TrEMBL record, chain A:
Its main location: membrane. One of its GO terms (molecular function) is proton-transporting ATPase activity, rotational mechanism. This is F-type ATPase subunit b. The chain crosses the membrane at residues 6-25. It is found in: Endomembrane system. Keywords: ATP synthesis, CF(0), Coiled coil, Hydrogen ion transport, Ion transport, Membrane, Transmembrane, Transmembrane helix, Transport. CDD domains: ATP-synt_Fo_b. Belongs to the ATPase B chain family. The keyword Methyltransferase does not apply. Pfam families: ATP-synt_B. Residues 36-115 form a coiled coil. F(1)F(0) ATP synthase produces ATP from ADP in the presence of a proton or sodium gradient. F-type ATPases consist of two structural domains, F(1) containing the extramembraneous catalytic core and F(0) containing the membrane proton channel, linked together by a central stalk and a peripheral stalk. During catalysis, ATP synthesis in the catalytic domain of F(1) is coupled via a rotary mechanism of the central stalk subunits to proton translocation.
TrEMBL record, chain B:
Pfam families: OSCP (PF00213). It comes from the Bacteria. It comes from Candidatus Roizmanbacteria bacterium CG_4_8_14_3_um_filter_36_10. The lineage of its organism: Bacteria, Candidatus Roizmaniibacteriota. One of its GO terms (molecular function) is proton-transporting ATP synthase activity, rotational mechanism. InterPro entries: ATPase_OSCP/dsu. It is found in: Membrane. This is Uncharacterized protein. Keywords: ATP synthesis, Hydrogen ion transport, Ion transport, Membrane, Transport. GO terms for cellular component: membrane.
Amino acid sequence: MEKLGVDIKLLIAQITNFILFFIVFKKLVSKPFKNFLDDERKKEELKEKLDSAIKEFEVKKQSDEKNFKEKFEKEKQKIIKETREEAEKKRTEMLNETEEEIGRLKTKTKEELEKSRQIMEKQLKKDIVTLGIEIVRTGFKNYLTPQTMKELTATMIKNAVKEN
Amino acid sequence: MEKTIIYSAYKLDQSEVDLLTRKFPFIDQSNLENVIDKTLIAGVVIYHHSQIIDLSLKGRLNNLEKKLYEIDR
């Protein structure tokens, strides 16, 4: 070995040095570094999970918002439609009531007019009769001569037997 | 006997009183009063006891007036 130029003591020392370095490196550098890397990886995974959860939440939120808006819009249209229908129904009812009231008023007015007409007609007839009789009465008073009066009296007495 | 009162538009003469007595025998000429009422126009109204016999033109016209009022068209 000495002929090859290899120092055995040095070799052993180098090997021992290497082994010691390896052990120290593994315990003091490699393991912590590996733990650090694992921690970073775990953090990264957690971050990805959180991002994913946030994204999912955002998507769900948008979807819920969209659904809510659609539902709200539907409800709004439904209320508007119902309100319009109700208003139309009320309008029709009021029109019908007004027409009926007008009809009733017309009938009542007609009846009252007819009643008034009948009363006036009756009064007019009465006035005509009264006037006619008064004309006849006045005519008799002014134009009956004494002779005619006597003849009339005699006729009325003679006819009295048949009546009384 | 109760008095008979005869209302007429003018003073009745004897012939008219006789005619009345013939038609209405209850009339006693001795107990008779003739009252002038020109509103009767013609004819007579006889009041005897509670009886009233209207033979006047005024009465006829009044009856006619009542009947005309009652006519319904």
